[in-house]
């Protein structure tokens, strides 16, 4: 009974959505320009990788 209600809700929600379809259309950023995407990914992942090293350097240099 509950499964049928969930199934009805999900199918009606899918039918009611009016989003563009296709690869990359449901992402919050554009994948059309591969160089811009590469730059964004390098900044995003690079900042997460270098942040701990910057914190350690700050702690070592702190008096």
TrEMBL record:
It is a single-pass membrane protein. Keywords: Membrane, Mitochondrion, Mitochondrion inner membrane, Transit peptide, Transmembrane, Transmembrane helix. The chain crosses the membrane at residues 37-56. Pathway: Energy metabolism; oxidative phosphorylation. One of its GO terms (biological process) is mitochondrial electron transport, cytochrome c to oxygen. CDD domains: Cyt_c_Oxidase_VIIc (cd00929). It is found in: Mitochondrion inner membrane. Signal peptide: none annotated. GO terms for cellular component: mitochondrial inner membrane; respiratory chain complex IV. Component of the cytochrome c oxidase, the last enzyme in the mitochondrial electron transport chain which drives oxidative phosphorylation. The respiratory chain contains 3 multisubunit complexes succinate dehydrogenase (complex II, CII), ubiquinol-cytochrome c oxidoreductase (cytochrome b-c1 complex, complex III, CIII) and cytochrome c oxidase (complex IV, CIV), that cooperate to transfer electrons derived from NADH and succinate to molecular oxygen, creating an electrochemical gradient over the inner membrane that drives transmembrane transport and the ATP synthase. Belongs to the cytochrome c oxidase VIIc family. Component of the cytochrome c oxidase (complex IV, CIV), a multisubunit enzyme composed of 14 subunits. The complex is composed of a catalytic core of 3 subunits, encoded in the mitochondrial DNA, and 11 supernumerary subunits, which are encoded in the nuclear genome. This is Cytochrome c oxidase subunit 7C, mitochondrial. The lineage of its organism: Eukaryota, Metazoa, Chordata, Craniata, Vertebrata.
């Amino acid at each position: 009974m509950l499964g049928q209600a969930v199934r009805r809700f999900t199918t009606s929600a899918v039918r009611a959505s009016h989003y563009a379809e296709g690869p990359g259309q449901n992402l919050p950023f554009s994948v059309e320009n591969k160089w811009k995407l590469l730059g964004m990914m390098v900044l995003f992942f690079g900042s997460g990788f270098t942040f701990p090293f910057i914190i350690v350097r700050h702690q070592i240099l702190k008096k």
